[in-house]
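Title: [Solved] GPR158/179 extracellular domain-containing protein 3D structure

Original question kept below for reference.
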Amino acid sequence: MAILRCVLTTVAVALFATWCGGLTVFEWMQRDNFDEIMDRFSEVTAENCRSKPREELEFPEDTVAQKPVYNMLLTSVIYSNRSQLLHLHNMALNRAFFYSFIFQRLNHSGDFVYQPGLMYLYMSSTADITGSEGFINGSAIVFDNNCYYPNWYLKNVVDFNRTLPRFGPRAWREDDYAETTNWLREPTNRTVDIHDYGAGRSADYTSQAYKYAPWYSLWMPDTEGTQDSLTKYTYTVGVKFSNQTGKFVRDEFENIGFFGPPQPAQTDTELTLPVKWTKPYFDCGRSNKWIVTASAPVVEYMPRYSPFIHLRRPRSVAVSTMDIEFERIDINPCPISEGNQKNYFAGTARCKPTTMCEVLHGYGFQRGGYQCVCKPGYYYPWWHDGPFLGMEIEQATDSEYQASFDCLSVEQRLVIPNEMPTYVERRKRRSVDPYTNKDKFLGSVLTEKESPRIRLRAKRSVMPKVKPLKMTHKLVAKRAVDSTTMKNRLKRRTFYPSFPRGNETHAA
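Solution (posted by the thread starter after getting help):
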C-alpha cells in the first residue's frame, strides 16, 4: 500500500510540474493553419452536422489551391497532384454538354418516350464513379424547380407535359466496411449509394436555408434572360445518321446546333466560366464527408414542347456535379512562391533555414507531404542519406529536431581565381621551356635533319645509336654556379660524355 501511494504521489507531482509550465517533447510544434482546419474537420460529424451553422460546414476558398480554370488550361501548368481535379473538371463539363445536347435534340412531343429515364440517369451517375476509381467520389445531375419532365412516371400518376417539383439523382461511393457480404471487413470501393436529392420534405436544395448544396446558387435559378449572351453559347456538332449497319443515310455530316455551357475568352472573369468550383463543404445526411464539387450547367429550352418559339428561351435547368473527397486532395505546405499562390496551408512545412521545401505528391490532407533539401552552399551530413522527409520531421521530438534535419555549410569552395598565383606561372613557363634535358639528349643522338618528334619508323633507326650510348656512356651535367634563373642555368648547362680509358676519340 505504501509503494502504491508513493507511485501515485510521483505521478501526481510529474503531472503538476507539466501543468505548471513543463514542456512536452512535441511542444516545439507551433499551432498553424493546418491545425485550425484539422480541428474544424474533426468537430463536424454525421450526428451534429444538422445543428451546425453554414460557416462551420465550409472551409475557406484557398484551402484547395491550384484548381484548374477552363480558359487557363492551355497556358498554365497542371501539376501531377492536380490531375484528379482536372479529371473532375473535365467530367463535369462532359456531362453538361451531353445532357444539353440530348434534351434539346429530343425537345419534341414525339421524342418524349426516348428521353433519358429514371434508370438511365441513376446508372449514368453510378458509371461516372465506378469508371473513375480514386478520382470521383460522387456524381449527380440536379434539376431546378419544375424543370424535369418524367417519362417514367406517367401511369395514372403524372400527366404528359407535367414536371416534378425537384429531381436530383446523385450517386456516391459508400464505405462497405459493415456489409454482411464483406467478411474481410476491408473497404473495397465497390459499393455505390444512389439517392434522389429532391425526395423528402427536408431536401429542398433550392431553398436558401439549405446548407449542403453550395453549387445550386452558382447557376440557378435562371429565371431572367438578361445575361443569356454571356452564360449560354451556341455550339454545332456534326452527326451522321444510319438506319442499317455500315451504311449512312447521307455521306455528309449534318450540322446540329444547340445551346451549351458558356465559352469564355482568355481574360474573361468567373461569370463566363463553364465549370465552377465550390468551397470544401460537409455533405451532411448523405455521404457525411468533406467534399469539393465541380459543377457545370445543363441548358434546355423552357417551357418544353411549346410551338411558340418566341415564348421560350435557353435556360439552365440543371447542374452536373462531380465530387471528390477533401482528404484525397494534396496540400502544399511549402512557403509562398511562384507556383504556390493563394494557398491556405502555405508555410506550414517545418524545414530549417539551411534547407528549402519541396512538395511530395500522394499524401492528401495530412502533414508530411514534403521534403527538405539543402540550399546552395550546404550539403547533407555524411551520416544522412538524401533529403529530410517531412513525415520524419513531423514525428520528431524537440531534442531530435534540434539535433537533426540540418545541412552543413560548405567550408571550401572551388572557384575560378581572378589573378593567377605565382607558382602556377612558374610551372607554366617550365612546361614550355625548350631548354630541357630531353631536348639536350635528343640533340646529342639525332642529326640536324632529323625531327625531335620521333615517329615509329625513325625511332627504329635511332635506337642503334642510343643503345650503346646508354649502355657504355654516362652523361654528366655541369651546373653553373652563378646562374640566377632557370632559363640561364639551362642555357649554360653542358653535357660531357665520359668514355672508358684507352679510348682516345670521342664524339662531342
